[in-house]
Hints:
Elements: E1 16-21, H1 25-35, H2 38-41, E2 49-55, E3 70-71, H3 74-78, E4 85-88, H4 96-105, E5 109-112, H5 115-132, E6 136-137, H6 149-155, E7 161-167, H7 170-182, H8 186-195, H9 203-207, H10 210-224, E8 234-235, H11 243-252, E9 254-265, E10 268-279, E11 291-298, E12 302-309, H12 313-329, E13 353-363, H13 368-378, E14 383-392, E15 397-404, E16 407-408, H14 409-420, E17 425-434
Parallel strand pairs: 1-2, 1-4, 2-3, 4-5, 5-6, 8-10, 10-17
Antiparallel strand pairs: 7-9, 7-11, 9-10, 11-12, 13-15, 13-16, 13-17, 14-15
The protein binds NADPH dihydro-nicotinamide-adenine-dinucleotide phosphate and L-homoserine (HSE).
Amino acid sequence: MGLKHGTMTASQRDPLGVGLLGVGVVGTVVAQALLDGRTQETVPGSHPLVLKQAAIRDLDKDRSVPSDLLTSDVSSVVNNPEVDIVVELMGGEEPATASIAAALKSGKHVVTANKEAIAKNGDELIALAEANGVRLLYEAAVGGGIPIIGPLSSDLLANRIQSLRAIINGTTNYILTRMTAQGEAFDDILADAQALGYAEADPSADVDGWDAMYKIAILARLAYGASVPLDSVHREGIRPVTAADISNAATLGYTIKLIAAARLEDGGLLVRVHPALIPNDVPMAKVDGVLNVCEIEGDLVGPLWLQGRGAGPDATASAVLGDIIRVARAPGSITPPRKLISPPALLEMSDYQCQYYLRLVVKDQPGVLAKVAGILADRNISIDSVLQMDSDPERGTADIVLTTHPAREREVQQAVEQISAVSSVEKFASLLRIEPYGDSSG
Ligand code: NDP
Ligand code: HSE
């Protein structure tokens, strides 16, 4: 193994060997850029990069990488003495985490796009990189091509971050955008997202909010210098969001998005992922398709808005290649992440406070609304608006949509339980949160 941390000039610098783990959607573009010399073009003075070996599962598939560089044995790449930088693009927790750890322990730099491995095992992997004096870079793990890990890890270090709020999963944003624009069926849109290379192979990673949870946990750790165990993050996906909710939200002046947020509330840190109603007049409501966005609020810098392609082969490869080039320029420049001496306590979702959107299917008869209003009033939850939608004379039912003034999640959940038990309420259909902006924050 040959790490070359010397101070030679551009023309004297030794090449660094790159070992790729995975030549799929993202790995193919990364391999091509290493093979055609793109990584050399823009950065004079850095170590030349040479692709030494690449691991894949299926040796019979056609690849853009010369066959003599391919292996199905991941450990042979990690242990290859000619490999100085291991680029992990397999995805999933294992064997990715074990491979990253082995590479770091043997003094190799690691670049990865793997949010699951970093969200679940980041604390240990970051410590391993520090202990072995090597770099662990993962810009592509969050927000695809958007530079977000870099700013949080270095440019914004002087700030106390007050809040992070993001649309951070391209697949769900793509699905919700098409459901909103054309009322298309969820399953057809998901199939398209997979064909375009946005969605994860297991769709639940995207649609059930896991992917967004991994990403916001990574950002929250960087922003707040705290460990963010995944069981402390509130997670809901988009499966429960129906065409009726999207259309009711539009009637009320909102667009539904999957929001991932981390914010200091009452001195503690609340990290949450769930679908939310966004007022149509705020910019986040207009971030459509596969685009991602992250709003960062720092005490010195004020509000920042980072928007771009959050998934897809080229955008993601842009971030991976940027990290590889960063190592090639300065392999010895190790920058440990922010670690607060007294990190904030992690709060539970039951402490959250916002306005709520509630949809009930009720028997269309006198007194139902009064009962529901009474239950809310008993818990001091104040109603902001009431709409009766979609009456069904044949079944004798109607959809009632209520929005509330700001209320505590704990109280709202208790009220929902009580409302669901009312005999004239056929079904408690939806609880969605209205994202606080400005005056509506309560
Ligand atoms: P793919 O599924 O397209 O590619 C995975 C690659 O890894 C394939 O070449 C596969 O081999 C190989 N591989 C998987 N498991 C093994 C194993 N056990 N041994 C050897 N090779 C293995 O994934 P993507 O390129 O889409 O994603 C790569 C990473 O980038 C993931 O962490 C993902 O979350 C992240 N990412 C992806 C984005 C995207 O838009 N696609 C956006 C942002 C991040 P084979 O080809 O033989 O199947
Ligand atoms: N599946 C992810 C998304 C892309 O849809 O955003 C990889 O991060």
